[in-house]
Specification:
The structure holds 2 protein chains of 2 kinds. Chain A is an all-beta fold. Chain A has no helices and 11 strands. In chain A, β5 and β6 form a beta hairpin. Chain B is an all-beta fold. Chain B has no helices and 11 strands. In chain B, β6 and β7 form a beta hairpin. The termini of chain B are far apart. The chains are: A mainly beta, B mainly beta. The interface between A and B is medium-sized, with 26 and 24 residues.
Chain lengths: 114, 114
């Protein structure tokens, strides 16, 4: 158990809909990262938040957005969903300073868009 | 442009023998390298890491070797056990502005045969 929690575990929705994925980082970790893993693909970095502020952006679509709240949990919002958005979405967290190199991952949310 | 490459999508090894997983990178700014193990339907689990100032790091049955001049790292598992069967991801860490980001390889499926 990494200490990172994600909900829901599974999500099935239709094209055009909007969903919200939730992540709680490990206790004490200030950074939260979101990744997408499509079928047979590696992990693609989407976005990072540090202590409530956006720190870095990767290959995140404009239809996707995220935020980190004062209690450090984070939400990833996916809107106008398309079939190709079906994937595993992982959240990871890391500490600060010397502890920021290692990211610890949650169990993921499997999204299926029909 | 794949900055981190795992050229072997799969590897089969007999139980008790050594497993060697390889990873190549192109960006010389990476200064920290990690290996993650992933079982189906679970998030990646951190295994072992190495700083770019070292050439070897050992943790139990797992050893990571780094050859900076060749931009190559490898993970050795000795002895291999059936429970080691999983997908192994190599990741490289570097600073992008003020943010530290991980770039993942595409993974190698290790199968340890009993």
């Amino acid at each position: 158990d990494s200490g990172v929690t994600q909900t829901p575990k599974h999500l099935i929705t239709a094209t055009g809909q909007r969903v919200t994925l939730r992540c709680s980082p490990r206790s004490g970790d200030l950074s939260v990262y979101w990744y997408q893993q499509s079928l047979d693909q590696g992990l693609q970095f989407l976005i990072q938040y540090y202590n409530g502020e956006e720190r870095a952006k990767g290959n995140i679509l404009e239809r996707f957005s995220a935020q980190q709240f004062p209690d450090l949990h984070s939400e990833l919002n996916l809107s106008s969903l398309e079939l190709g958005d079906s994937a595993l979405y992982f959240c990871a967290s890391s500490g600060s300073g010397d502890r920021q190199e290692t990211q610890y991952f949650g169990p993921g949310t499997r999204l299926l868009v029909l | 442009d794949q900055q981190v490459k795992q050229n072997s999508p799969s590897l089969s090894v007999q139980e008790g023998r050594i497993s060697i997983l390889n990873c190549d990178y192109t960006n010389s700014m990476f200064d920290y390298f990690l290996w993650y193990k992933k079982y189906p339907a679970e998030g990646p689990t951190f295994l072992i890491s190495i700083s770019s100032i070292k050439d070897k790091n050992e943790d139990g049955r797992f050893t990571v070797f780094l050859n900076k001049s060749a931009k190559h790292l490898s993970l050795h598992i000795v002895p291999s056990q059936p429970g080691d069967s999983a997908v192994y991801f190599c990741a490289a860490s570097g600073l992008s502005g003020s943010a530290r980001q991980l770039t993942f390889g595409s993974g190698t499926q290790l199968t340890v045969l009993p």
